[in-house]
Amino acid sequence: MQKAANKQRVEWLLADRFHCKDPDTQSGQFQHPIIEEIVHSVWFNNRNGLGCLYQQAFSPIPSSTLALVVAAIYDDFLVAIEQYESGAIADVWRSYRTKVFKRGLKNARAQREEARKPVAGLLLDEDVQAEMLRLKESLAEDSDSEDEIPRASE
Predict the structure, then answer these.
(1) Residues 37 and 47: beta-carbon distance below 8 Å
(2) 133 burial type by CB count under 10 A (0-12 exposed, 13-18 middle, 19+ buried)
(3) How many C-beta atoms lie closer than 10 Å to residue 43's C-beta?
(4) Is the bond preceding 60 in cis, omega lying within 30 degrees of 0?
(5) How many CB atoms lie within 10 A of CB 24?
(6) pLDDT tens digit string along 79-107?
(7) For residues 24 and 132, what is the distance between their CA atoms, to the nearest angstrom?
(8) What are the residue boundaries of the DUF6532 domain, all occurrences included (predicted)?
């Protein structure tokens, strides 16, 4: 009897409810506490967690990171979370993701750091084109000079 009730509950939750803070009303989309718990346990597990070490990349928590967590639970929600990123709710959604980041730092007992200069900057279009040309030439030279890798059946 309990097994059938559990199965029914799972089916009900997977019908676009499991990620909601309140599955009964389907409110708090992508804000179920388990999502934040997973973010904290994976990226903010201690002061050396990636979310603490690379704060610029995690403040606010990227929507794609939340989508990854949700996808790990169930895989059909990337499109829905993208609506939050660019829709009317975008500002509030960013504030929520910033709140998740700050809680992560607090849970890890880490401090917010000042923005650092990026290790590498974006390339200009002409630099990208020159690098692509150089790579193509290099690949062409390599393919001419390398011996073919033998297959296991040979």
Answers:
(1) no
(2) exposed
(3) 22
(4) yes
(5) 8
(6) 566 677 777 888 998 999 899 999 999 98
(7) 52
(8) 3-87
